[in-house]
Amino acid sequence: MSIWQWVVASAVSRWGDDPWARGSWSLIGRGGTPRHRTDLGTPIGSRLRIAGEATHATRAAMTHGAYEEGVSAGAWAAGQGHARVAVIGAGIAGLAAARTLTDRGVWTRVLEARDRVGGRTAPAQVGGFGFDLGANWLQQFHDNILARLAERLDLPMVPTDFTDPLVLGTPYEIPDGLEDDLRARLAAASEQAGIADVLDGWLADPGRWTPDDIRRFVDAEIVMDSGAPLSWLSARHGFEPGVGEGDRWIVGGYRRLVDHLADGLDIHLNRPVHHIRTGPQRVTLDEDLRVDAVIVTAPVGVLTGDAITFDPPLPATHRTALQRLGMGRVEKVILRCDRRFWPVHPAGYYRVHGPGENCVSEWLDATAADGTPTLVGLFAGPWLDDLWAGPDDQVAARAAAVFAEAAGGFPGTGPAH
Description:
InterPro entries: Amino_oxidase, FAD/NAD-bd_sf, Flavin_monoamine_oxidase. It holds the Pfam family Amino_oxidase. This is FAD-dependent oxidoreductase. By secondary structure, the chain is an alpha/beta fold. It has helices spanning about 35-40, 65-80, 90-105, 145-150, 180-190, 195-205, 210-225, 255-260, 300-305, 315-325, 385, 390-405, and strands spanning about 5-10, 25-30, 50, 85-90, 105-110, 125, 130, 135-140, 155-160, 165-170, 250, 265-270, 275-280, 285, 290, 295, 310, 325-330, 330-335, 350-355, 360-365, 375-380. It has a six-stranded mixed beta sheet with strand order 1-19-22-21-20-10, with helices on both faces. A hairpin with a 3-residue loop joins β14 and β15.
C-alpha cells in the first residue's frame, strides 16, 4: 500500500503561478534595506499610495504588517479630505484600508482581480473542513493586532512551536552558538552581498562547525522562511524576524477573519486594474472609474511586472525600491488522511530535508482542527520545480511520498505512484 491510498482529500497552492501574487511574500534582495520598504509605502503626492506587507519596515511578510499598513493608508487618504477613494486589492491590506475609510464615512470601492477576497490568505475546503493555502499563522502573537481581533471574535487558535520540530529522516541538533555566528557574519557583510556569498566563505572555513550543521540551519531557518535563492537574498537584511514568536493558527482558517473584515464593504470581484492615471484633480482607473485617490495593495511581484501601469510613472525612489525587493516562493500542501501514520510529537511540527541543496519542507499536524488526521506541508527550494509539476493530485501524491519516505518504518508507508 502506498501512503497516497491513505489520503482521502488534498489541496495544493500555486503561488508561483498565480498572476496576482507571483510569489508568496516580499523579501529584500542584494543592495536593499528596510528603507526600501518604507520608500515604497511613501505617498506619491496626495492621490496615490502603495501599501501592504512589503511596505512595513518591521512586520514585512506578515498579515498583521499588511493590516497595519492598510489602516495607515486609509487614514492618510481620509486625512487628505478625499471624498471618493478606490482600493486596489481585497487582501488584508486592502480590506484594512477600505474598512478604515468606510468607518470614517468616505465613499470607498475595492477592486479585486480574483473571484474571492483575502489575497494571499487563501481558504480551502479540504475533506469538509476549512484550511489555509496561503497565510496560516498569527505571528508575533502578543503584539499582533489581528490576534486581538481573533480573540474578540472568540476564534479557536492552536499554538505552534517552531523551535522544536521533530526532524524526520536523519535527526540532528543545531549546536548552540551557530545561529549567533551566522547572524554576526551576515551583519558584517556588505550591502551588496547575498547570503550565498557569506555562506560560501563560511563553508570554505567552517571553524568549529561542520558544513552539514551550517547547511541544515540555513535551509531550515532561511530557505524555509524565504523561498528565495540565497544568491539573490540580501545578506544584511534578508533574514528578517517574525516566525517563532508565539505563532498560532486559527482553527477553520484565516477566512473567519477575512469575512469579518470584508463585511459590508463595496467590493467588486473579477475586476483587475491595469492602468492608473493620476492627474491634478483626480485619479482615473482603466478610463472608466474616476476617484479622488487610490490605494494600491498589489504585491511586489505584481508591481514589478506589467500587470499595472502608472501614468505618470512611479517616482525614482519607488522604482528603486521595487528593484531591491522581490518575492519568495513557498508552496503548501494539505493532506487529509483516514489514519494517522506519522509519529506523535508534542509540538506537532516536523522537518524534512530533501535530497538536494536548499530543498526543505516543514509539516504541521493539523489534526486538532476537527480530529481528522491532517498534515499541512510547506515546501521551499529547487525541488519545487519538479514536485509542483502537473495536476494537483500528482503534486499532492509526490508531497505525501516525501513525508512518508522520511517517516519510514511505519507500517504500510511507501512511495506514492
